[in-house]
Specification:
Ribosomal Protein S5, domain 2; Rossmann fold; 4-stranded mixed sheet
């Protein structure tokens, strides 16, 4: 290869923009300090690179209304929480990206998925570029028995993997991970922008051409996004993020993009010695260990996709020892809490200007839904007055700048979830009362409120 054909090119890690020189700001996505240098072969770039391309003679035009959808186009994984996040199962010919922090359980989840799908009679190929066969076997022994339908390949060459997929014809393929794969047609190192983009494009053509469902594992950066070009997330059909504190036992699988189902769905798992186990009742799991007769503690209901989830919000307010009060939040928006405290001072006369305030959502969850505003307000006031709230109370509603409590979506589902776990009193927006249908035999008492002052008066009364 002639040295004259080699060139230094700068790529944007966010959008894949290509430039002949380094720039502080990407002209494509306007992101700062995202340009990285790579050595590429100009002759291959001029020939279109090594990305697989379908011949134009294979393309056919069809009538959209005549396209039929079959039930067998979706494969159940045998893991109900995963099926929920995927939108009902694995879609034939789909490309799914799974991201998450190191050690969070991405490989364990996909290996368990291979185990369950293969037990149902589907042929699965697990491709690992990071671990040896012995290492994968050690993890598999902890998960249980695997059928003969699970094939294992330890390889990083994309050309060799493509050939084996065409020869073996598996129904589901797992690539662990995309940053370790490399193509001979790209001269840059594995994990670079060019290699990740080329590998994903090749796997995309395989998935659509052979109708093979492919899962690819993506490493994440310290900012929590998938490493490599941001175009990677645009190319795939589904993007799943595996979240949670690695020191805690629970894990949350969240869908942030899904062409075949609802986004923002979550699946809750618990990490045990034998692998990941589904949490059938996440609300009960999140409320375990809740303190009794403690001020500043209240339960609210947040909606994650179509799933209502009961969470505990804790507030702690104490006199400040410094000139500027300290405010800190864990699991919710810091600026939103400051706004709610300002509403309390202005509309309800609660003097918080000289107090430190801390708000925490237990369990390590991160919730930004406005429906938890009312619960945050009540937790702060309860701690400020050192007066515990009723143990069987639940509250939800969005708080406006005028102190009004606005209606939220799907209030009836939130109330039903709270009633199922034994709560007896619910403070909710008055605008949601007409949408709430209660069981005549239930013990839940629903109170509609129109402002923060109404909620405080009811609690004090």
């Amino acid at each position: 290869m002639a040295k004259g054909k080699m060139a230094s090119v700068f790529f944007c890690q966010s959008c894949g923009y290509e430039s002949a020189k380094w720039m502080g700001q990407c002209p494509g996505c306007k992101a700062w300090n995202t340009m990285v240098e790579e050595i590429v072969d100009r002759s291959k770039l001029q020939n279109g690179g090594g990305t697989l391309r379908r011949q134009t003679s294979d393309a056919e035009v069809c009538v959209l209304s005549e396209v039929t959808i079959r039930e067998q186009d979706k494969v159940l994984t045998g893991i109900a929480e995963l099926d929920r996040v995927l939108g009902g199962g694995i879609v034939q010919g789909s490309l799914t990206l799974v991201g998450g922090d190191p050690g969070i359980g991405k490989s364990t989840l996909l290996l368990q998925t291979c185990q369950a799908v293969a037990a149902a009679g589907h042929k699965v190929l697990y491709v690992s570029g990071e671990e040896s066969q012995v290492q994968i076997k050690m993890r598999a022994d902890r998960l249980g028995n695997f059928s003969q339908n699970v094939l294992l390949l330890c390889e990083t060459s994309l050309d060799a993997i493509t050939e084996i997929i065409r020869r073996q014809k598996p129904e589901i393929v797992v690539i662990d991970s995309i940053q370790t794969m490399y193509s001979e047609s790209v001269t840059s190192a594995p994990g670079s922008v060019s290699q990740v983009r080329e590998a994903t494009a090749t796997l995309l053509q395989l998935a659509k051409g052979l109708l093979v469902s492919i899962f690819i594992v993506g490493h994440v950066t310290k900012e929590g996004t998938v490493a490599g070009p941001r175009v990677l997330e645009h190319m795939v059909d589904t993007v799943l993020y595996f979240e949670g504190d690695r020191h805690a036992s629970y894990r949350i699988l969240r869908s942030v993009k899904n062409r075949f189902g609802s986004t923002n769905e979550i699946g809750v798992f618990e990490m045990r010695e034998s692998g990941l186990e589904e949490v059938k009742n996440p609300s009960e799991y999140m409320l375990s260990g809740r303190p009794e007769n403690a001020s500043g503690s209240i339960v609210t209901c947040s909606l994650e996709g179509t799933r209502p989830l009961l969470i505990e919000i804790q507030g702690l307010v104490c006199q400040s020892n410094f000139g500027i009060p300290r405010r800190q939040t864990t699991g919710t928006d810091f600026n939103r809490v400051n706004l709610l405290m300002a509403v309390l001072e202005k509309r309800s006369g609660v003097q918080l200007s000289g107090c430190d305030a801390y708000v925490n959502i237990t369990g390590g969850l991160k919730v930004v839904e406005p429906a938890i505003d009312l619960a945050i307000v009540l937790a702060i006031v309860s701690s400020f007055r050192n007066r515990p709230l009723p143990a069987k109370l639940i509250a939800f509603g969005e708080v406006g700048l005028s102190g009004e409590v606005r209606a939220v979506s799907q209030a009836s589902q939130r109330v039903a979830e709270a009633e199922k776990l034994g709560f007896e009193l619910c403070l909710m927006p008055k605008g949601n009362l007409s949408d709430c249908r209660l069981d005549q035999n239930g013990k839940m008492k629903v109170i509609g409120i129109s402002s923060v002052t109404d909620a405080l008066d009811y609690i004090n009364g």
